[in-house]
Write a structure and sequence with these properties.
By secondary structure, the chain is mainly alpha-helical. The protein has one domain. About 55% of the residues lie in helices and about 0% in strands. It has a two-stranded antiparallel sheet. The chain starts with a helix and ends with a helix.
Length: about 270
């Protein structure tokens, strides 16, 4: 099949899957669901960063951990952080654990969020300070953003991945998808970041899909692999390369959907 015809074929099949699966009724179980309860962007961006940072491990434990944190923070996480000292935060979450993350890691992440908002006005504005029209992708913004979160030599452990170390930064890219895109699933709210700059959130499911679709041959789920897969999606939708992420990852999360069947269909 010629490249042009194959791209059109892939686009048609992916759009069929998107139209079928990119619906809120397919969100649960996914930490994304927590964002829907927060109408104010100043709260939603905090919730999104917390939920995405904890999005590793078994999904039931992820949902339990995110719910625990947000329940303590109350109706407005923004106000909770604004009114809390570092000691208040440590006391509020004493004893918290989520796989490799301890209460001290969570407290340092929340303190970093509080300080970023105090300095820049919002998490969105902080991210925008790290990008310019000269950049061709979102990595400089990610690097600046994570650097600002981790000032004062705070240690957030596994909660914040560092782009400069070559990590795929799956959870940060997931957070950006939630906040930058807006459709029936992604609630959006952030401004000033081109959709075309987003990078696919590369987890085990998406890596398997990328290999199955012949978008990559790389065996390691690194940032290079994530970018390589994203570039292939850009050929299908240049303006919105992560458009199909939610629908595709349902294939690896839901019991009634199968990765192998879809890959077999699209490669038939």
């Amino acid at each position: 099949m010629e490249n042009k015809n194959r791209t059109t074929f892939y686009r048609d099949k992916l759009n069929d899957l998107y139209n079928q699966c990119n619906r809120r009724r397919y969100v649960h179980p996914d930490p994304l669901e927590f964002l829907y309860s927060y109408k104010q962007i100043k709260d939603r961006e905090i919730v999104g960063l917390i939920a995405s940072s904890l999005a590793y491990g078994r999904v039931r434990q992820i949902l339990k951990s995110v719910w625990f944190v947000l329940d303590i923070m109350g109706k407005s996480p923004y106000l909770f952080l604004k009114q809390s000292s570092y000691n208040d935060i440590c006391k509020s979450f004493r004893g918290f654990t989520h796989r490799f993350s301890k209460d001290s890691h969570l407290a340092d992440l929340l303190w970093g969020i509080k300080n970023v908002i105090a300095r820049f006005g919002s998490l969105n504005q902080c991210f925008l300070e790290g990008i310019s029209s000269e950049h061709k992708d979102i990595i400089p913004g990610m690097t600046f953003f994570t650097d600002q979160l981790l000032t004062e030599k705070r240690n957030s452990g596994h909660l914040v991945a560092l782009p400069e170390k070559g990590s795929a930064c799956k959870r940060m890219n997931l957070f950006l998808r939630w906040m930058v895109r807006k459709d029936k699933v992604d609630p959006g709210g952030w401004e000033g970041i081109p959709l075309s700059w987003l990078i696919i959130p590369l987890d085990t499911h998406m890596h398997k899909i990328g290999i199955g679709l012949k978008f990559t041959e790389r065996k390691q789920a690194s940032m290079r692999t994530a970018i390589e897969i994203t570039e292939c999606f850009k050929k299908i939708d240049p303006g919105d390369p992560v458009k199909y992420d939610f629908a595709l990852t349902r294939l690896g999360i839901r019991d009634d959907m199968n990765i192998g069947d879809f890959i077999g269909l699209i490669n038939s």
